[in-house]
């Protein structure tokens, strides 16, 4: 049985999530503040953490930071703000995804399933992918630009790999959602935009750029081809 740790000081939200998660066969642990969440995480090592950002004693950002120091437990954040500020900060701290309150509990459970499916999936076979200075090793789930290792979260790695498999080809937001988040992902395409922004930062100026194709999606641009050397002049006939 997979175990989910729900961290929220609103009891009605905890019980609602417990009802829906247990119905899907998950074990549920509950914490009402950040310190209790870290204690339960240390004792039980859950498979996923649903983490509210507004918590007493220790806020969700601090909890997220500490969980990332400990390991790679997937984190799904809950935020009451409709803009991207909290989401971006949380993603930068290492969260895997986010849901905005109020939320549909069925949609949130579907998001949990999608995250666990992605984190459980073993790396697909195949040779490393190279695009200019970018190198992606699917087996090791490692990526680097030149000698610089990229610290990518699981979803960011999958997104970059999806773009790098077809450099120069435009992938729609819907196609990226299906490839990276799964066919049952209930979220909006804005999720793709937030993750692309984070991957761009980590690629930096020395990595291949991710180009936005307005109204369509994104493509990873391959390095320009070196110009061909000029052809040797035809030999002059004598006589």
Q: Would you mind describing this structure in some detail?
A:
By secondary structure, this protein is of the alpha/beta class. It has 2 domains: 118 residues, Response regulator (Rossmann fold, 3-Layer(aba) Sandwich); 92 residues, Arc Repressor Mutant, subunit A (Orthogonal Bundle). The strands form 3 sheets. Strands 2-1-3-4-5 form a 5-stranded parallel β-sheet, with helices on both faces. A hairpin with a 2-residue loop joins strand 6 and strand 7. It is elongated and about 80 Å long. The mean pLDDT is 85.
Concise synopsis of the structure shown:
The protein is an alpha/beta fold and 239 residues long. The chain contains eight helices and twelve strands.
What's the SSE blueprint?
Layout: E1 3-7, H1 11-23, E2 27-31, H2 34-44, E3 48-52, H3 60-70, E4 75-79, H4 85-93, E5 97-100, H5 105-120, E6 129-131, E7 134-137, E8 142-145, E9 148-149, H6 154-164, E10 171-172, H7 173-181, H8 190-203, E11 210-213, E12 217-220
Parallel strand pairs: 1-2, 1-3, 3-4, 4-5
Antiparallel strand pairs: 6-7, 7-8, 8-9, 10-12, 11-12
Helix pairs in contact: 2-3, 6-7, 6-8
């Amino acid at each position: 049985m997979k175990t989910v740790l729900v961290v929220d000081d609103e009891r009605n939200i905890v019980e609602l999530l417990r009802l829906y998660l247990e119905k899907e066969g998950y074990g549920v642990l509950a914490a009402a503040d950040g310190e209790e969440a870290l204690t339960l995480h240390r004792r039980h090592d859950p498979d996923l953490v649903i983490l509210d950002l507004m918590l007493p004693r220790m806020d969700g950002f601090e909890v997220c930071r500490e969980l990332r120091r400990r390991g790679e437990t997937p984190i799904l954040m809950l935020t009451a703000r409709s803009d991207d500020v909290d989401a971006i900060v949380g993603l930068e701290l290492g969260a895997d995804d986010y849901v905005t309150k109020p939320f549909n509990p069925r949609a949130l459970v579907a998001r949990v399933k999608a995250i666990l499916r992605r984190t459980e999936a073993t790396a697909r076979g195949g040779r490393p992918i190279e695009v200019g200075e970018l190198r992606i090793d699917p087996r090791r789930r490692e990526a680097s630009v030149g000698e610089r290792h990229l610290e990518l979260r699981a979803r960011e790695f999958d997104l970059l790999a999806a773009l790098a498999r077809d450099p120069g080809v435009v992938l729609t937001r819907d196609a990226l959602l299906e490839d990276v988040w799964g066919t049952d992902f209930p979220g909006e395409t804005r999720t793709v935009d937030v993750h692309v922004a984070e991957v761009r930062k980590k690629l930096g100026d020395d990595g291949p750029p991710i180009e936005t194709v307005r109204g369509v999606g994104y493509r990873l641009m391959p390095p320009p081809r070196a110009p061909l050397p000029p052809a040797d002049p035809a030999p002059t006939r004598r006589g």
